[in-house]
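Lab notebook, design round three. We kept the backbone fixed and only want residue identities now. Task for the bench partner: fill in a sequence for the structure below.
Input structure tokens:
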């Protein structure tokens, strides 16, 4: 559910990608990049059938166009192994035209949007509200970056914590009940507030991926989310190439078979929507 692709020409400095401050801070070692073939190899190594792939949330719409083209090409060349998502910047003009263009390229949703990296406000107003409403009308899913508000700091952590996500998604889902939203990185811990009834109601309309989980949470986090929200709200994401899918093997092995199947197949299918042959 969460693999990053980047064209070869953007992988090394001094290419244009390194002029993006967020990208440069997150990739100081210039190693965390992958091609479609490398993602397919990682899927094979983990015994997985398919993966959801996307580029990097650059602020510059021109870079996003270049990366979207690459993701679409890699998905098309994968023989159905890769499902590609598009990236837009709701804070810059032209995002709606890029959405329609990417739909024509065969991409199937949007993500991983990142307000801190891309410089847009994480509020349900203005262009972000319009973008989310447009995605609901298109029946396209969207993935948002999320960050835990406590714990250790690291490059790329950001400020998209539970409070800000709550303030965005409560009105967004009230306005567009069919909008399918996945929050990366276990939603920055938003599901752990589901002992509050209004948060539980919201979270049962969302999905949460496990990307970078070994860096952030104990293994007990996954069964805790299932216990709070019910099975089917958590999707397996690795954040490849930052982490191999096999890195999660020990954590997944501790879960019941039905929970693992939901995590790896049923929940991603539900988020991608019935139009997806996955």
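Proposed sequence:
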């Amino acid at each position: 559910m969460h693999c990053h692709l980047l064209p070869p020409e953007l992988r090394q400095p001094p290419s244009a990608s390194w002029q993006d401050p967020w990208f440069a801070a997150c990739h100081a070692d210039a190693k965390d990049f992958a091609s479609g073939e490398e993602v397919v190899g990682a899927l094979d190594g983990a015994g997985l059938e398919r993966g959801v792939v996307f580029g990097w949330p650059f602020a510059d719409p021109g870079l996003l166009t270049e990366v979207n083209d690459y993701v679409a090409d890699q998905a098309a060349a994968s023989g159905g192994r890769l499902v590609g998502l598009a990236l837009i910047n709701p804070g810059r003009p032209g995002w709606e035209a890029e959405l329609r263009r990417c739909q024509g390229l065969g991409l199937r949703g949007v993500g991983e949007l990142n307000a801190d990296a891309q410089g847009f406000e994480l509020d349900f107003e203005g262009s972000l509200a319009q973008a989310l409403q447009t995605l609901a009308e298109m029946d396209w899913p969207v993935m948002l970056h999320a960050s835990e508000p406590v714990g250790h700091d690291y490059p790329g952590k950001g400020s998209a914590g539970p409070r800000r996500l709550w303030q965005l998604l409560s009105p967004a889902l009230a306005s567009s009940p069919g909008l399918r939203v996945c929050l990366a990185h276990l939603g920055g811990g938003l599901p752990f507030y589901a002992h509050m009834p209004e948060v539980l109601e919201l979270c049962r309309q969302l999905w949460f991926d496990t990307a970078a989980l070994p860096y952030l949470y104990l293994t007990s986090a996954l069964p805790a989310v299932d216990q709070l929200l019910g099975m089917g709200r958590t999707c397996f994401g690795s954040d490849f190439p930052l982490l191999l899918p096999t890195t999660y093997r020990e954590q997944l092995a501790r879960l019941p078979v039905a929970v693992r199947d939901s995590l790896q197949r049923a929940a991603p299918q539900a988020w991608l929507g019935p139009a997806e042959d996955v």
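Keep this in mind before ordering anything: The chain has a mean pLDDT of 93.
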